[in-house]
Write a structure and sequence with these properties.
The chain has ten helices and seven strands. The protein has about 250 residues and is an alpha/beta fold. The N and C termini lie far apart (about 60 Å).
Length: about 250
């Protein structure tokens, strides 16, 4: 990883989008998940994952905005196994100090955001748009933080406007049971993920011509369709029960 980063810094043409550097991190993620028996099942629109985006050097024309629910540190490793060849995370700036993860985010030139700084938010927006317009997908967690109980939370604003500005589709990814395998406050799995961890790739949602509210609703509905009931918001579950009782 360090050698790949050195070569990319010294010879920009060697790894222009840090795809090679990112791939070294993906290898470690796959090894880690295999050793801990936590390699996920992947279902859904798998053809979307195989779209040509310019090989390992990136720069193709298959960009999209991937969005997923977030309930565990395990989500990052899981997504690194699902999304290939190149994409960029939108992540909290504070993760730079986190061992391993920080090196990958900084060395891979991912999009880091400080939500307390409006200038940082503007830089994040511009950097994300630049990647999308260059054919490099962005991966974001619209909840903005890990869910403490695994249930889908409300979304932070602004993420979906990137897709509108860059004229790319949004692809929701439902991550099931990551919180049960590795709780949100934990750093190691507490049980095997075999037969439990699952990622469902939904069909793309076209952002052009839709309002922020419409995209939020469509993405939430897609994510919830493939999440177990214990990851649904309690207020929505209560609403569903009330409707069933009336009928």
């Amino acid at each position: 990883m360090h050698i790949t980063r050195f070569l990319g810094d010294t010879f920009p043409e060697f790894d222009p989008n840090r795809a090679k550097f990112d791939y070294t991190g993906k290898i470690w993620c796959r090894i880690y998940l295999s050793l801990t028996d936590c390699y996920p099942e992947i279902d859904g629109d798998l053809a979307r994952l195989r779209e040509d985006r310019g090989g390992r050097d990136g720069g193709g024309n298959g960009a999209c905005l991937f969005v997923a629910n977030h309930s565990s540190f395990l989500d990052i490793a899981v997504l690194c196994c699902v999304l290939d060849p190149v994409f960029k995370f939108i992540a909290k700036d504070s993760l730079k100090a986190f061992p391993g993860v920080g090196l990958q985010l900084v060395g891979g030139e991912h999009v880091l955001i400080d939500r307390t700084d409006k200038r940082s938010q503007l830089r994040t927006f511009k950097q994300g748009i630049t990647y999308l317009q260059s054919g490099i997908p962005i991966m974001a967690f619209p909840e903005g933080r890990r869910s403490p109980d695994g249930r889908l939370m409300d979304f932070k604003g602004g993420i979906f406007s990137m897709a509108v500005k860059a004229k790319v589709p949004i692809v929701p990814l439902s991550i099931a049971n990551a919180h049960a395998v590795m709780p949100g406050s934990g750093f190691v799995p507490v049980q095997s993920g075999r037969g439990k961890l699952r990622v469902f790739v939904h069909e793309p949602i076209e952002a052009e011509g839709k309002s922020e509210e419409e995209m939020v609703q469509l993405v939430r509905e897609a994510l919830l369709r493939e999440l177990p009931l214990d990851q649904h918001p309690l207020n929505e579950l209560e609403g569903e029960v009330a409707v069933e009782n009336k009928t």
